[in-house]
Amino acid sequence: MNTTGNGSSSWSCSSLINPEALKVGATVAYSLILVVSLVGNSLIVLIVYNTPTLRKPINMLIANMAMSDLLLPIFLIPVRLTDWHVGPWLIGGTLGQALCKIHPSLVEISMKVSIQSLVLITVDRYAAVVVPLRSPLISRKVCRCLIVGTWILAVPFCWPYLFTYNLVEYQEGKRCMNQWEVIFGEKSSFAIYLLSACILFFYIPFVVLVILYSIILIKLKKQVHPGEQSASAEEQRTRRNRNVLKMTIAIVVAFFICWIPFSIQLVTIYFIPKITLDCKFRVSYTVVYFMACTNCAINPIICLTCSSNYRQALRRLVNCCGAVQG
C-alpha cells in the first residue's frame, strides 16, 4: 500500500485551516509519534528478549510486531518531516536513488508483517482458550519459524516499489515519486495491485480475526466464572487467558481503527477517478494518514498498560540499567 505520497498538498487548503498552524501542529504530532514509537517498541523488544518468563509465543509475536513498527518511525516519519520543512529530496546520486526505493518498500513490509503477526497472535489465543487441553498449537520453535515467515512473505508483495519509485528532477529539486505507469503501463494496473494488497492484508485478515475472536468470546462466556475464594490452577489459567485476551483485542482493534480508514480512502482515490480532490478530501486524507502512523506508537502503550508482566519486566530493566550506571 502506498503510504509515501506527498503530504504537502493539504497545506494549501487555507480556506479550511491556517496552513502554518497545520504544519506546526502536524510536526509536533509526528515528532511525538516518532519518539514514543522508537522508545516504546524498543522497550517491548528488550523486555521480551531479556525476560525468560516472557519468551512465550504470544510475546515473541508481539515483539515481532514491535520490530516491524520500528520501521515506520525510522523510514517514514523523517521523510515526511523533511518534505514539509525542506522540500526536495536531500540526498542525490546512487545513495539517494537507493534510499528512495528502499524506504517505501520497508514501510509496506512493516504493515504487512504487523497484520500477519496479529493473525498469528489471534490463532495462539484461539488455541489457548478454545482447545486448552491440547499441546500448544504454536510452540516456541514453530513460532520462530513463523516470525521469519512473516518477513519472507511480506517481501514479494513489496518488490514492485523497488522498480517504480525513482528520484524525479523538478524545478525546485529532486523528489521521490512512484512512477508505476512509466514502469508497468496503465494506471489501472496499480489500482488493481493496491486493491489486491488491501484485500489480502486488511479485509480478509479483518474477517478472520472477527470470526476467531467471536468464537473465543463465546467460549469464555460459557465458562464458569471463578469464585472469589477459589484459586485452582484451572481458574488461574482462565484468569490469565482473559487478561492476555484483553490486551490482544485492544491491539487488534487499535490496528484496524488506525489503518482501515486510510486503506479505504486510498483505494477510493484510484477506483473513483471522478472524485474531486478538493481541500476537504485532502485534509481528510491527512487525518487518516496520521491515524495510520499513530498505530506504531499505540501498541507499546497498550502492552505496558494492560500487562502487569510487561510493567514488572520494565521496572526490572530500568533498575538493572540504574545499577549498572551506579
UniProtKB/TrEMBL annotation:
<feature type="transmembrane region" description="Helical">
    <location>
        <begin position="284"/>
        <end position="306"/>
    </location>
</feature>
<protein>
    <recommendedName>
        <fullName>G-protein coupled receptors family 1 profile domain-containing protein</fullName>
    </recommendedName>
</protein>
<keyword id="KW-1133">Transmembrane helix</keyword>
<keyword id="KW-0472">Membrane</keyword>
<feature type="transmembrane region" description="Helical">
    <location>
        <begin position="247"/>
        <end position="272"/>
    </location>
</feature>
<keyword id="KW-0812">Transmembrane</keyword>
<keyword id="KW-0297">G-protein coupled receptor</keyword>
<keyword id="KW-0807">Transducer</keyword>
<feature type="transmembrane region" description="Helical">
    <location>
        <begin position="145"/>
        <end position="163"/>
    </location>
</feature>
<feature type="transmembrane region" description="Helical">
    <location>
        <begin position="28"/>
        <end position="49"/>
    </location>
</feature>
<feature type="transmembrane region" description="Helical">
    <location>
        <begin position="190"/>
        <end position="216"/>
    </location>
</feature>
<dbReference type="InterPro" id="IPR000276">
    <property type="entry name" value="GPCR_Rhodpsn"/>
</dbReference>
<dbReference type="Pfam" id="PF00001">
    <property type="entry name" value="7tm_1"/>
</dbReference>
<keyword id="KW-0675">Receptor</keyword>
<feature type="domain" description="G-protein coupled receptors family 1 profile">
    <location>
        <begin position="40"/>
        <end position="303"/>
    </location>
</feature>
<dbReference type="InterPro" id="IPR017452">
    <property type="entry name" value="GPCR_Rhodpsn_7TM"/>
</dbReference>
<comment type="similarity">
    <text>Belongs to the G-protein coupled receptor 1 family.</text>
</comment>
